[in-house]
């Protein structure tokens, strides 16, 4: 862990101003200036909706281990690690070395390369469902190809997905990720709702929405759609939608049912691969037909993958006629492969165990903090991830998540930024290996202080 003496924090402003947005504005002038410049070149001054928040996003200049520095030089503990990707923290020496070595040898060729073979082999050895794998550049592409494969393999058009799950930003994926509850139909029979303007009507017709963690309702819908359904896709542990783990019963029901009806089961493990060497499928002991991966497998570079059963993946074999073409200038590019291989090599079973132990401890500590302030918050945890929801009710699906108080969440997020902690705006967190007890304590203490301050405002 890198020690940085006397970090500059915005603490001195706190006694003067108690409004977290006002403190944020006062302490981030360079981020504000960058954003004003960015507004002239990019819509809303951003190229990534998920890093934008009001009043303007934080601009991060550099990171080492579990610490990041913003454009004003303010240090924070990074509790989200590029939305769970940076499992080894920032600028890990082994990853930097692998990237430097590969960069000096060339970063991309119109040819296959030896490093992609290594990473593909490692993934197939670790993840139970993978007989074969293909690389792409983003999770969006991975789920898009997995769904296409399922349609090609089964000859059926429809895809079922969970209300509140997240699978990226292609047309089939942008349905009922965050619908307005008032427009989303009954909980046990959700209506397909577009997440974006521009989502084609056919997507709403071809995507079937299922209630997460409700096996009976999901079974009813799947049986009704069965003969037209190519796949059921889900995150076995919903990640950015609130860290909500599926119950074993729910996954078992989906596995049995999809097998019976000839529907492919796709686990989107783009986030949940960080919970065990073989992902959530290893923890639950349930093997899907296809799996999508991303985030940690690229060691911080844009790498994702999809893979699974040999007889399904075979459809991508260019020696076959017909086959699915999967072009991609940067698929399996050696730079990303080298960073991913260095990262995955560091991730031994002991490392996962240690991270998960720390994850469980953080959840306990956070639960104690909120209880001590008598603030009703659900601390959802899974492995080394967690999310905070300001609600009385256990958060087990989209509807219970959507009932949480978003204003309180925003105030806590901004308050934590002002106290030297960087989380996802929707209060999701993910631990990284460089975090020690002191880093974690700093985070928990910051939550304690901010909750205390905001309660007495
Ligand atoms: C479960 C899941 N699937 C798909 C995606 C999309 O991945 P990407 O942002 O790399 O396109 C994400 C991104 O957060 C994700 O969490």
- Average pLDDT, to the nearest integer? 95
The coarse overall form would be: globular
State Rg: 22 Å
Briefly note the structural class of the backbone: alpha/beta
What portion of the residues fall into strands of 2 or more residues?
5-15%
Low-confidence stretches: 1-10, 12-17
Most strands sheet: 7 strands, mixed
Task: List bound small molecules.
Answer: pyridoxal-5'-phosphate
Alpha plus pi helix count: 16
Spatial sequence of strands, sheet with the most strands: 4-12-11-10-7-5-6
Structural summary, described in words:
Helix 4 (93-105) runs antiparallel to helix 12, helix 8 packs parallel to helix 9 (248-261) and helix 13 packs parallel to helix 16. The chain has helices at 20-27, 29-38, 81-84, 93-105, 114-126, 139-154, 201-206, 215-225, 248-261, 279-284, 310-313, 334-346, 349-372, 398-402, 406-418, 437-455; strands at 60-64, 67-70, 75-78, 132-136, 158-162, 207-210, 229-234, 237-238, 244-245, 264-268, 290-293, 304-308, 378-382, 385-389, 421-422, 428-430. With 457 residues, it is α/β, with parallel strands linked by helices. It is built from 16 helices and 16 strands. Bound molecules: pyridoxal-5'-phosphate.
């Amino acid at each position: 862990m890198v020690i940085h003496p006397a970090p500059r924090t915005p603490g001195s402003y706190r006694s003067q101003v108690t409004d977290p947005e006002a403190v944020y504005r006062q302490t981030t002038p360079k981020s504000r200036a960058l954003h004003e410049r960015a507004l002239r070149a990019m819509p809303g001054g951003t190229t990534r909706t998920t890093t934008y928040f009001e009043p303007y996003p934080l601009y991060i200049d550099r990171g080492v281990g579990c610490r990041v520095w913003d454009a004003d030089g303010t240090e924070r503990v990074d509790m989200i690690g590029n939305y769970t990707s940076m499992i080894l923290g920032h600028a890990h020496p082994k990853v930097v070395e692998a990237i430097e070595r590969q960069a000096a040898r060339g970063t991309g060729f119109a040819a296959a390369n030896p490093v992609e073979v290594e990473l593909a082999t490692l993934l197939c050895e670790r993840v139970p469902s993978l007989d074969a794998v293909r690389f792409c550049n983003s999770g969006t592409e991975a789920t898009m190809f997995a769904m296409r494969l399922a349609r090609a393999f089964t000859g059926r058009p429809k895809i079922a997905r969970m209300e509140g799950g997240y699978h990226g930003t292609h047309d089939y994926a942008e349905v009922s990720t965050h619908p307005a509850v008032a427009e989303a139909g009954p909980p046990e029979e959700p209506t397909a709702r577009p997440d974006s303007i521009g989502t084609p009507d056919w997507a709403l017709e071809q995507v079937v929405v299922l209630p997460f963690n409700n096996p009976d309702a999901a079974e009813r819908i799947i049986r009704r759609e069965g003969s037209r359904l190519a796949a059921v896709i889900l995150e076995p542990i919903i990640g950015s939608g609130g860290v909500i783990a599926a119950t074993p019963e729910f996954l078992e029901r989906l596995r049995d049912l999809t097998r019976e009806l000839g529907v492919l089961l796709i686990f989107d493990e783009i986030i949940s691969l960080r919970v065990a060497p073989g992902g959530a499928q290893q923890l639950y002991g349930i093997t899907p037909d296809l799996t999508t991966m991303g985030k940690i497998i690229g060691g911080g570079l844009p790498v994702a993958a999809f893979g699974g059963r040999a007889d399904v993946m075979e459809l991508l074999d260019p020696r076959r006629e017909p086959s699915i073409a999967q072009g991609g200038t940067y698929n399996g590019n050696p730079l990303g492969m080298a960073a991913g291989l260095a990262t995955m090599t560091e991730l031994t079973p002991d490392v996962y165990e240690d991270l998960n132990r720390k994850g469980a401890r953080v959840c306990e500590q956070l639960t104690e903090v909120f209880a001590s302030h008598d603030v009703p918050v659900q601390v959802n945890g899974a492995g080394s991830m967690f999310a905070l929801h300001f609600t009385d009710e256990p958060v087990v699906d989209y509807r219970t998540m959507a009932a949480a108080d978003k204003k309180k969440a925003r105030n806590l997020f901004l308050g934590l930024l002002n106290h030297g902690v960087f989380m996802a705006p929707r209060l999701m967190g993910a631990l990284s290996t460089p975090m020690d007890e002191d880093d974690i304590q700093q985070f928990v203490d910051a939550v304690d202080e901010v909750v205390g301050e905001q309660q007495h405002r």
